[in-house]
Amino acid sequence: xxxxxxxxxxxxxxxxxxxxxxxxxxxxxxxxxxxxxxxxxxxxxxxxxxxxxxxxxxxxxxxxxxxxxxxxxxxxxxxxxxxxxxxxxxxxxxxxxxxxxxxxxxxxxxxxxxxxxxxxxxxxxxxxxxxxxxxxxxxxxxxxxxxxxxxxxxxxxxxxxxxxxxxxxxxxxxxxxxxxxxxxxxxxxxxxxxxxxxxxxxxxxxxxxxxxxxxxxxxxxxxxxxxxxxxxxxxxxxxxxxxxxxxxxxxxxxxxxxxxxxxxxxxxxxxxxxxxxxxxxxxxxxxxxxxxxxxxxxxxxxxxxxxxxxxxxxxxxxx
Amino acid sequence: xxxxxxxxxxxxxxxxxxxxxxxxxxxxxxxxxxxxxxxxxxxxxxxxxxxxxxxxxxxxxxxxxxxxxxxxxxxxxxxxxxxxxxxxxxxxxxxxxxxxxxxxxxxxxxxxxxxxxxxxxxxxxxxxxxxxxxxxxxxxxxxxxxxxxxxxxxxxxxxxxxxxxxxxxxxxxxxxxxxxxxxxxxxxxxxxxxxxxxxxxxxxxxxxxxxxxxxxxxxxxxxxxxxxxxxxxxxxxxxxxxxxxxxxxxxxxxxxxxxxxxxxxxxxxxxxxxxxxxxxxxxxxxxxxxxxxxxxxxxxxxxxxxxxxxxxxxxxxxxx
Lengths: 319, 320
What we know:
By secondary structure, chain A is mainly alpha-helical. Chain A has helices spanning 10-13, 22-32, 34-55, 57-60, 91-126, 129-144, 147-158, 178-207, 210-217, 222-258, 270-279, 286-313. Helices cover 68% and strands 0% of the residues of chain A. In chain B, helix 1 (2-29) runs antiparallel to helix 13 (286-314), helix 5 (125-138) packs across helix 8 (185-215) and helix 12 (273-283) runs antiparallel to helix 13 (286-314).
């Protein structure tokens, strides 16, 4: 009796591994990166602490603008965890308030940057030759401007204007004061071109990829191709860009603060705290040390998390 | 190559015109004018001032006026002290330039040496030092490094004096400032390190990665197999090729150091161009704002162009 070769029975012989999608795999790989996990945890802790400090008086213990002239320039103690400044304001409370402000700037500005970058990047890559030329020309021009000088100029243009988004009054959006929005817009108007270039390049290369060609050949609509094939494949690039982008925005704000062009007193941002502390470095060096440590920790954590995410999201760099 | 260069230079003209236009209208969109202060001027004085500085026309007229002057290489005058903007730039820019040059030299030397040594001893002691420094360096922007350096080296150790600085006779044509800096090294060291540390860390990381990549190439193995000694292989085969990516980032870094030193200028009270820009923005001193932006934009564009050209010279595979 001749046996006919049976087709391999996949349902029976299957090697049982749990099926995982892209994100679940990426998350698994991220979890194995101890440095990235720790960084993420530290970032989460700082964020939580600064949000709690704003919401719960027991966490901030003093108000950020509460002067007490009997305790000026104190060393750290159980009364004032990080000491007090030259006006007797509690540094713990000011540092947390400044951190929250800087983090808000970082996240919000990066959100605007990514939104603008993806929109214009896709427009350039998919909108035909004319549109592409215009967008590329605009990004080229943006590269010719000195970044920080433009941020300063934009900030001055936007600062002090009424922003009638909903009604009148200063915090138009709860928790986001006018100066914060002005700073965010100034930073993002200058910074979106990098993401735009990134997205444009990625989509242009995806356009030539086999699976996009295949999808097109079986009649998938342009919108479906963009939504199902292109955006998810651009997303990992964008996520990594975001993790490195947020600290860059915080840098930009801190640089503004350092030259005295961030929030007006008595509000604090990490940049203004460094600026104020630097002026007092000869009398009370703790004032400049705390915000410096905070900025350095934020930067390091975002860098490690970004490295971890890049390794996790890029299947080609798998070990 | 010549054709490419000419095309790129011609493409700079509309680009710079756009930069001038955008800056002009942005600047006029800043609230308040150059003569607004806490105490309002009386109407007649104000009108006279505006007439004197050609601010009395419509925005369009002012723009045409400015462009016409610009075509004659006239950048106008500063409203705060009537000095020609060109003279201000000529005065202030050399200060920023030499600070930028020192920082660049520091960043390149430090970055290259660390990066190459690290790559040659991968996973060795120096490699860990480099990886550590380049990671930490990325987290220490100038405005954080400056207070730290001042506190440690000027206050605690008292090696440098940052309180009294003398930037000497500065002019574009007079190169004696080089000698002046050599004799006033104590005021240059801390700003140089503060400004150059971040790019040094970046260059070290790029050099290390690029060296590691090159050392794995076949032609390195071939060179070794032909019996060349280690030193020759590294110097003649590896480093040359590993430097190409470094060259790409060196141009923007240089432009960034020259045009972006105003944080350090503020931290160390250095009278550079960046500081005068900040003052001019706050005082809405239109002439200085425009002059500085245009000047910096020219520098950045020319640097980008030079890098692209240098790239083609170093890497013969690139045809322009």
